[in-house]
Write a structure and sequence with these properties.
The structure is a single chain. The protein is built from five helices and ten strands; from the N terminus they run βαββαββββααβββα. The strands form three sheets. It has a six-stranded mixed β-sheet with strand order 2-3-1-4-8-5, with helices on both faces. β2 and β3 form a beta hairpin. The radius of gyration is 15 Å and the shape is globular.
Length: 193
């Protein structure tokens, strides 16, 4: 079987749960051709990406798929690209709040995801789960992780992607999606990488 490292984030911004990690936890250990390794990462600039890279060096995965919460979105949104920018409207979980700083000094402005983003969104929609391609992973820790991984694994065999999920209904915020529906969407995504 192929190896897939899938990550979700710890809660942040005063939330008690993070639907990215809660949905990853609920995924089966094998989906399609992939054996999953699940990893919870901190909502901290630099540290989130470092945790993924450390595990990836031990695991040598075929695919790294990171999942994050995008409050305000109503669909599951695979990200098309990561940008070389750190900008925080709210502090991360260690109080860091960078303003318009590069992630990698002298790095490329943007790097494209290496998973089939359009196909994934289409296949999720075909199963009547709301999905759309996103062209901005923001400039917070989610984008920090995506861009760092894309830069590290550029021109390698390892595919890298990021999927944002909405609030889950348990958070009592709108728009939201039941955790079971988020799990269904991620399962479809993994089958179509």
């Amino acid at each position: 079987m192929k190896k897939l490292l899938i990550t979700g984030f710890e809660p942040f911004g005063g939330e008690q749960i993070n639907p990215s990690w809660q949905s990853v936890l609920r995924l089966p250990d094998e989906i399609g051709d992939y054996k999953l390794t699940k990893l919870c990462i901190p909502v901290v600039f630099g540290e989130g990406a470092e945790r993924v890279l450390k595990t990836a060096k031990e695991l040598s995965p075929d695919v790294i798929l990171c999942v994050g919460q995008a409050g305000g979105r109503k669909a599951i949104t695979p990200e098309f690209l990561g940008i070389n920018l750190r900008h925080a409207e709210i502090p991360d979980n260690k109080g860091n709040q960078p303003k318009d700083e590069p992630i990698i000094s002298g790095g490329e402005n943007a790097l494209f995801s290496t998973i089939p983003v359009r196909k994934i969104a289409q296949k999720i929609n075909e199963k009547e789960v709301l999905s759309a391609v996103s062209y901005s992973a923001g400039a917070y820790v989610c984008n920090d992780v995506l861009y760092t991984l894309l830069a590290y694994f550029k021109n390698s065999e390892t595919k890298v992607g990021f999927i944002h999920v909405p609030y889950c209904t348990e958070q009592n915020k709108e728009p939201s999606m039941p955790l079971s529906t988020i799990v269904d969407g991620l399962t479809i995504a993994i089958k179509n990488i």
